[in-house]
Amino acid sequence: MMSQKQVLDVTTPVYLDKFTCLGPSCPDNCCYGWTVTVDHETYGRLRGLPDKELKPVIQHALHRGKGKSGSWDYGYLSQKQDASRSCELLDGEGLCRLQKKCGEQILPDICSSFPRVTNVIDGQVEQFATMACPEVTRLIFAEHAPFDLIVKKLEVRTGSVSRQADMKKNSPLSKLRAFLLALLATQEIPTWKSLAVTQLIVEDWLAHSDQKQNIDELIEPFLRMWEERVLDGSLLQELDGLRRHDLLHVKVMAAASRIRSEIIFRDIRYLQLIEEALVGLSLGVEGADDQVLAANFAKAKEVVEVDALLRRVSLNHMVSNYFQSALDLVGDAQRLSMEYLMLRFWLVGLSLARKRTLRQEEVVELVYIFYRVNIHTPSYLVKCSQEFIAAGMNKVEHWMLILPLDAA
């Protein structure tokens, strides 16, 4: 019996409708650096596969996991014990032996669905994709309107669909999330301002929803109030008066950059890009200090262009991963801002290092590797977040000191 599938009405962006896996011609591959979980049903199916050629490979690669009977993590596929850390089932051509021989339907859910991310939001199935895939990232930057939405019937594996209890139809959280997405998608507002307003709204919502009133009745007047503040220009005008505190910005970003020395990265290309960016910003250059780095970043003309590019990145990551549970809304808002700041810092540094505006493929390379690293090494962003907090980034007003584009 194969994994259960359903044909569903799925809301998906234009870029994903145009996506096709590049296979062996891809500059990277999906099958390394992580442990592939195998649900109980698929585990049994693989163990019982009669194919004489695949059977010994599967016996070597497939292991019992920690999950109980019927669980999604009942088993896992191991990685090769060499520098590649690739899946045991990957052949010399960069293709999956299992898929080549038996078809996509026999793969574990994660292998079948990647890079797609499927969530049930407000009663509707949404499918976007992670930018850890280079082709997804390329399409998001190449398409004129990558986030235009279409609804189409798709065959979806039941095990790959995420359902959050907080995201029921017309729930307060689903309305809040829709408002924040619309805010970030508004091109007339710089990305950093959208992220700043997101933090302000989340903080205010937590204060409102703590008043032991019916939050179902609170959410709509709450969002109308914030919409009026944005539309009448008063809030954005307040943000216009903010200036980046460059020394604090450098302190925070330097702390985050040091994390790379504490973690073993499989993809050394990510480390090479960070090193190049830091050289471009004069960090690590003999005789340079925080003042020099701050001055170099402050005079970089590329920061405005980078801010505009990162709207697409932040929007895609937000819709796929954030504000789907009420448990840590502040953390979601801060992590989204942190990712924006890190990518902004590295992209500006790379532009300075190369003494020109980055080409689209160069932006794609850094962005996709950044998100690939975060999948392979989930502790990376956790440690970066800890460094941000240790540097004093624990209140909204502190983030307002480093988000702006203009220096003090």
Structure, described:
The chain folds into two domains: 5-165, no CATH class; 168-408, no CATH class. It is built from 18 helices and eight strands. The protein has helices spanning 14-17, 40-47, 54-61, 97-102, 109-113, 134-142, 172-185, 191-209, 215-231, 234-240, 246-257, 268-280, 290-298, 302-321, 329-354, 360-376, 379-390, 396-399, and strands spanning 5-13, 36-38, 62-64, 75-77, 116-121, 124-129, 149-157, 161-163. The strands form two sheets. It has a five-stranded mixed β-sheet with strand order 7-1-6-5-8. A hairpin with a 2-residue loop joins strand 5 and strand 6 (124-129). The radius of gyration is 23 Å and the shape is globular. The protein starts with a strand and ends in a 9-residue tail after the last helix. The mean pLDDT is 88.
Overall average pLDDT: 88
Domain tally: 2
Shape: globular
Distance between the termini: 63 Å
* Topology, number of strands: 8
- The H/E string reads EHEHHEEHHEEHEEHHHHHHHHHHHH
Q: What is the number of helices?
A: 18
What characterizes the major β-sheet? 5 strands, mixed
> What order do the strands of the largest sheet run in, or round the barrel if closed?
7-1-6-5-8
Q: What would you report as the Rg, rounded to the nearest angstrom?
A: 23 Å
Could you give a quick summary of the protein structure above?
The chain has 408 residues and is an alpha/beta fold. It has 18 helices and eight strands. The strands form two sheets. It has a five-stranded mixed sheet.
